[in-house]
């Protein structure tokens, strides 16, 4: 299973849309810190594809852990409604964006995410998260659509 996180970088936070690969409608939104050159504790993580595993802690209970982030560790996916106040590089699902790096109903969005991915942990292939800039994904889709139109004449 692969999740696609399409980001919009803003001065006070990073807002995203989270999709299952192959689907065109996001099932939730995300908030993160703004891009600050991958500075630990102050920046969202770099774009790329990462393996995601299930993790549990007393603070966040069951949540997701993003592995092998260059120059970073303990990047999690957990509930939060304000990136600047509650995140230190992690990703928080939200139901609605309310501003730059802020949203509402994060626990509801987190539960929705967990319901979607829990079955992936019973399969041999890993759960992947691909993070991309919103325009890059749109440009790639437009290229694919143009190639299809050309091939159809």
Description:
With 153 residues, the chain is of the alpha+beta class. The chain has one domain (2-151). It has helices spanning 83-86, 106-117, 134-151; strands at residues 2-10, 13-20, 28-32, 48-57, 61-66, 75-77, 92-94, 96-99, 102-104, 127-133. Strands 6-5-4-10-1-2-3-7 form an eight-stranded mixed sheet. Strands 8-9 form a two-stranded antiparallel sheet. Strand 4 (48-57) and strand 5 form a beta hairpin. Residues 142-148 have low confidence and may be disordered.
Put the structure in a nutshell.
With 153 residues, this protein is α+β, with helices and mostly antiparallel strands. The chain starts with a strand and ends with a helix.
What structural class do you assign from the helix and strand content? alpha+beta
Spatial strand sequence of the major β-sheet: 6-5-4-10-1-2-3-7
- Approximate strand percentage: 35-45%
Question: Kindly, what is the distance between the CA atoms of the first and last residues, rounded to a whole number of angstroms?
Answer: 34 Å
Oligomer: single chain
Please tell me the total number of domains. Answer: 1
Biggest sheet overview: 8 strands, mixed
